[in-house]
C-alpha cells in the first residue's frame, strides 16, 4: 500500500535523470539574448583564435565548411531553468580548430558579433566538449538562435554557448565576460547549479 500522494511526487511526473537540479523540461526552444540580433552574412563571417603571442588563426565561412563536420546530439540547459533534451546540431569541433594553435594559456574569452563576451576555460572547449555550430535540427541556425554560427558548449549553462560567435582570445587568468560581470558564475556547471557568484 502506498501513502505517497500526488502532492509529494512533483505533480505526478517522474523526474528525468538527464535534468540537472532546478531545471524544467521544455519542448520549444526559448529565445533569450542580451541585445539585438545582429545580421551577419556568411560572406562576411569570420572566426579567429588569438593567442598570447598575438598569433591569429582565422577561418572564413568556406574554410569552416571545408573542415570535418560532426553531428552532435546533446541536451542543453539554460540558467533560467529550462532544459531541452536530445537536440541535434552540426558543427566543427573546437578540437579541430585548435590543432595548429600553440598556447600555454588555460582560459579563453569568446567574442560575438554584437559585442557579447563570455569566458570559458580551455579544458571546457576541448576533448569533444565544444563546437562551432551552424545547423540545428537539420536546418541552418536561425539568427535568433545565434546563426550563422554559435559556440556550442552543452555541458555548461547555455549562456556559455555564445551566439553569433566571431572568435576566442586566449587568457592567462579567468576573467569575467558580460553575464559574469553581472553576477553569473564564472564557470556555469548546471549539475552543480553554478548559476551565480
From TrEMBL:
InterPro entries for the chain: OxRdtase_Mopterin-bd_dom, OxRdtase_Mopterin-bd_sf
Source domain of life: Bacteria
Xref: CDD domains: arch_bact_SO_family_Moco (cd02109)
Renumbered residue ranges of the record's region Disordered: 1-26
Domain Oxidoreductase molybdopterin-binding residue range list: 35-179
Name of the protein this chain belongs to: Molybdopterin-dependent oxidoreductase
Amino acid at each position: 500500500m502506498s501513502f505517497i500522494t500526488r502532492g509529494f511526487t512533483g505533480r505526478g511526473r517522474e523526474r528525468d535523470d538527464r535534468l540537472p537540479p532546478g531545471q524544467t523540461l521544455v519542448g520549444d526552444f526559448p529565445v533569450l539574448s542580451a541585445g539585438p540580433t545582429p545580421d551577419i552574412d556568411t560572406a562576411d563571417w569570420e572566426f579567429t583564435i588569438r593567442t598570447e603571442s598575438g598569433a591569429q588563426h582565422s577561418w572564413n565561412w568556406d574554410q569552416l565548411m571545408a573542415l570535418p563536420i560532426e553531428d552532435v546530439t546533446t541536451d542543453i540547459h539554460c540558467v533560467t531553468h529550462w532544459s531541452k533534451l536530445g537536440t541535434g546540431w552540426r558543427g566543427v569541433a573546437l578540437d579541430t580548430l585548435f590543432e595548429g594553435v600553440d598556447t600555454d594559456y588555460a582560459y579563453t574569452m569568446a567574442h560575438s558579433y554584437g559585442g557579447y563576451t563570455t569566458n570559458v576555460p580551455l579544458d571546457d572547449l576541448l576533448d569533444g566538449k565544444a563546437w562551432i555550430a551552424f545547423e540545428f535540427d537539420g536546418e541552418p541556425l536561425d539568427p535568433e538562435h545565434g546563426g550563422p554560427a554559435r559556440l556550442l558548449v552543452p555541458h555548461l549553462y547555455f549562456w556559455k554557448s555564445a551566439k553569433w560567435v566571431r572568435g576566442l582570445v586566449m587568457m592567462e587568468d579567468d576573467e569575467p565576460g558580460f553575464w559574469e560581470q553581472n553576477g553569473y558564475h564564472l564557470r556555469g556547471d548546471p549539475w552543480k547549479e553554478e548559476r551565480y557568484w
